[in-house]
Amino acid sequence: MKAMLLILMIAIALAASVSVLPQERDLDRSIKGKEDELQKLRDEIREQRRKISDIEKQERDVREYIAKLEKEEKLMKRLLAGLEDKEALLEEQVGHLRSDLETSEIVYRHRLKVFSKRLREMYKDGPRHSWQELLAAEDFPDLLQRYKFLSLIAEGDAAMIADVRERKAGIEKQEAEITELLQEVSASKAEQESELRRLDENGAKRRQTLADLKASKQQHQKRASELEERERKMQAFIEELEKSRLSRSQDWGDYGEGDFASLKGRLPRPVEGNVTREFGRFKHPEYGTVTFNTGIDISTRTGEPVRAVARGRVEYAGDLPGYGNCIILNHGSGYYTLYAHASSIFVAQSAQVEKGRVIAEAGRAASGSGGTIHFELRQAKKALDPGEWFAR
User: Fold this and answer.
1) What CATH code is assigned to 260-388?
2) pLDDT tens figures, 97-145
3) Environment class of residue 16 by beta-carbon count within 10 Å: exposed (0-12), middle (13-18) or buried (19+)?
4) Per-residue pLDDT reduced to its tens digit, 34-72
5) Domain ranges in the chain?
6) Which of 354, 205, 387, 383 is nearest to 278 (CA)?
7) Which of 79, 147, 303, 392 has the fewest CB atoms within 10 Å around its CB?
8) C-alpha to C-alpha distance for 339 and 361, rounded to whole angstroms
9) CA angle, 222 as apex, 218 and 225 as ends, to 5°?
């Protein structure tokens, strides 16, 4: 009798353990899935921190480049100031030369006038004038002296004209040389001014790049902070699941729809609308950051009813950093669905929900235009593409 009683007690214990085994496996899968999601969050946080470090290095490089540009700009301004001083001196020298040239021209014209007058008088008097001067000599020494005097006058006039012409030609040549030098200085000045403008433009572009880097850095820092908060929340959630698993005192019941895998290709959409972001890798068009979308984003009207895609149990209902108001349904066999960015939630944790039941309303999109819902489908730790599960 005692042996029979012992056997009966063992059988009851075994039956009890068998009855909770599927629920324990589901809970283990849930914990494993959340731990995997937590690891992904940590990996993305590391990636964000790496990008922040890269941006900080780029910032240092840009700052160094800007410092070099500013130094070069200062040197260029000093060079321009030197060229302007040189130009001023050359212009002053040209002014003096032009004044000398004008004086030489006045002397030249005056002497030319005197010489021309003498020629006219000699022409009027004819050749006999010179002979008369010579024949008027009282003796031979006087004759020689008169001849020498006339020769000296002729040579002096000729030398005077030649000297004035030579001086005028020299001044004109020097003026041409200085004018050419002025043109070179002016050209060099224009080139330096053009270079200075280029430096200013490059400096402005680099400063804009620096501002863009700061904005990008702030974006990554914000994203990293959001992920860290999300990690903290997820960690707390996993700890709660772990407590539930360890207690094993909760009667989970039959909350799934049997073989959930058989519903592939037959699930309804959780909300009416258009898919604006597909499942998988996504590159941000502005910041170039690459993230992995573990679900899909559906654009809809704000307040549009959000329905359960299958029968299940509410695993979580509340705010989740990065997801906003969020609902997680457990459909058994390790399958879960997640509905995020809701404006209102109509179910409580641990509640049983039927397929098609309204569990929430769509929240307002970040752009402020219309509403949105983020939907995910998971099998234990693996994120599945919801698009492959929806009915066509």
Assistant:
1) 2.70.70.10
2) 777 767 777 777 777 677 666 656 555 555 545 555 555 656 667 656 6
3) exposed
4) 666 666 767 777 777 777 777 777 767 777 767 776 776
5) 42-230, 260-388
6) 387
7) 392
8) 10
9) 135
